[in-house]
Amino acid sequence: TIAWNLVASYYEELPFGRCGLMTAQEPWSGHYKVEAPIWITAHTTQFAQPGWSYLQVDGHLEGGGSFVALTDGLGNLTIIIETMTHNHSKCIRPLLPHFSVTPQRATFYLKGSFCNVETLQVWHSRLDFESGNSSLFQQLHPIKVWKGSFTLDLNTDEVYTLTTLKTGQKCGCPEPPPSQPFPSNYKDDFNIRNPPFSEAPNFADQTGVFEYFVNASDPGDHVFTLRQVVVQRPITWVSDADQTISVIGNFQWVNLTVTCDIYIEKNRDGGVFVAGRVDNGGIYVRRTKGVFFWVFADGTYRVTGDLAGEEILMKGLSGVRDNVWHTLTLNIQGNSASGLLNGYPLWENVTISKPSNGWAAIGTRSFEFAQFDNFHVE
């Protein structure tokens, strides 16, 4: 089994949100969830180890569902039974042929050296998809084996482990901090002298990589910055955007002001942006929409409705040039957006039709060095 991914620690509205054994997607609050896949996995992993062997059993139940059996070769036995219904067994791919599962009474027969087994420990999960009141990895009373056989009543959407091992445990997890939305007023000046990690918290890079940077040649205001460092298009398994982008904040945000100091390092055709209402990322990053405020090293600016820069809402001259710090401010209110350069209005009253909500973001025109500092979203 491949679990993709182990812990879902990225904004939930990105592609494949919560597709992990656990979810820890709020570093600002510390909230996390130990999800059902952890305990369904435990039905196998707590009662078998590397070196155990699967037994050659038929594995099909008459009323639908399946089972496997494993042994360590030293007399220990683990049987794992599942009765998942078709609707709750679908994966993204491939299509799952139809099958039916009904409540049933199943009798198992132990042969060979397992004839001597007298008792099996029982662990049980029942997944209730309608109410959400699932019972996960509960230890039930041991089951007696009579003359090598035992009978079990099985319902649908259940998982059982029957084992000679007595080592299973469901640890009590401390109650995590309560869930909180992303702060509605958030600042980061990236002033960390010896960061324990390379990336700034809460930014989620979708294309490109944004890292802490020490700008040793700066006279003082921008010594510690965030820098986009990928300058060559990577080989990717999906079609990354031609631009780099890192998103941050709350996907439900509608009205917001994003301010950030920017520093274009690539002369002539370099460029950077700040954005709001950004609606996508991950494998769909090429078609990301939003409100994007771009400035370029040739002294022009653009406002676009997409990351690709094809939907131009406004354009003109800005006077921005490379290797000089500038401050961009993007303000989105209702159906209107405006932009400031170094605190002075550069454009205003641009009509926004969609998206109606989304993250804030920063990024660059191409795979190029560029720096960001004093990021603020409200």
TrEMBL record:
Question: What Gene Ontology biological process does one annotation of this record name?
Answer: galactosylceramide catabolic process
Which Pfam family is one of those matched by this entry? Glyco_hydro_59
Keywords linked to the UniProt accession? Disulfide bond, Glycoprotein, Glycosidase, Hydrolase, Signal
**Gene Ontology terms for molecular function:** galactosylceramidase activity
A Gene Ontology cellular component where this protein is annotated is: membrane
Q: Which domain of life is it from?
A: Eukaryota
InterPro entries to which the protein is assigned, alphabetical: GH59_C, GH59_cat, Glyco_hydro_59, Glyco_hydro_59_dom
Give start and end of each Glycosyl hydrolase family 59 central domain.
54-169
Residue stretches making up the Glycosyl hydrolase family 59 catalytic domain: 1-46
For the Glycosyl hydrolase family 59 C-terminal lectin domain, which residue ranges apply?
A: 205-378
- How is this protein named in the record? GALC Galactocerebrosidase
**Whose protein is this, by species?**
Chionis minor
